[in-house]
Sequence to fold (319 residues):
Amino acid sequence: MHYLEFEKSLAEIEGKSAELRAMAAANPDMDIEREANALDQKAQKLLVDLYKGLSPWRKCQVARHPDRPHCQRYVDALFSEFTPLAGDRGFAEDEAVIGGLGRLNDRAVMVIGQEKGHDTQSRLKRNFGMARPEGYRKAIRLMDLADRFGLPVITLVDTPGAYPGKGAEERGQSEAIARCTQKCLSLGVPLVSVIIGEGGSGGAVAFATANRIAMLEHSVYSVISPEGCASILWKDAEKMREAAEALRLTAQDLRKLEVIDRIIPEPLGGAQRDPAVMIASVGAALTEMLGELSGKDAETLRNERRQKFLGMGAKGLAA
Fold:
């Protein structure tokens, strides 16, 4: 288990409890159960206190937690008969984007998501979830396929943002993101999106211009990262805490602003503490959101999606 900076005191208590139990396992004559249970209770209370009112910056840290379940785990657990589809048919396969056909509760769907990777090797392979133009063009191709065959599209968003490298810019990164967003708006099938970790910049919007948008309780969704915002506004990336407050990037803020439609509760301590429960909750939310859109014709779906995004921000301006 990786511990975040603000969880250091929790790490010490849980570490002592684990150490006591390891000693008892090595020496059966030792009776440490009472002490270990007391430490467990203390750790549980501290965990509740730590997560009771997380600041926006701490939510950013939780959203980026390395043990948090990423796209591939959701795909493996929720979608049966998943068949991955690769390539943009123009340049290359982008490993940062996972996409393919699968079944959610026996309903055929198209699944598209951003995968960060779980260790050094996979993170490098997946480019830390930062898609290049070919990733967005691959997503467009898969959305076209879903539209042609009348399949709902599900997107799982988890990216710090689109890859800003020289090669990506030379191959038309901005144009690819814009066209992917445009494709989301033009789809005649239900499109639902869940932000499972970071929803960073246009790289996230290109996947999340959906009829229904959900966020995990401790995920974040913003036009720019707090560090990037602080660097631009204050010329000091260390002011990321102030930037996180100003950006209103938490699920709770965005629900009030009606940018998103629902918040999916996380297990105490974040999704990383109980991935199986978190994945099941996301599956239930996806099923419910698709149910809300069932039976609507293509024109209705397009109009509702466009009106949803045209109306965003009105409540915030009025406030």
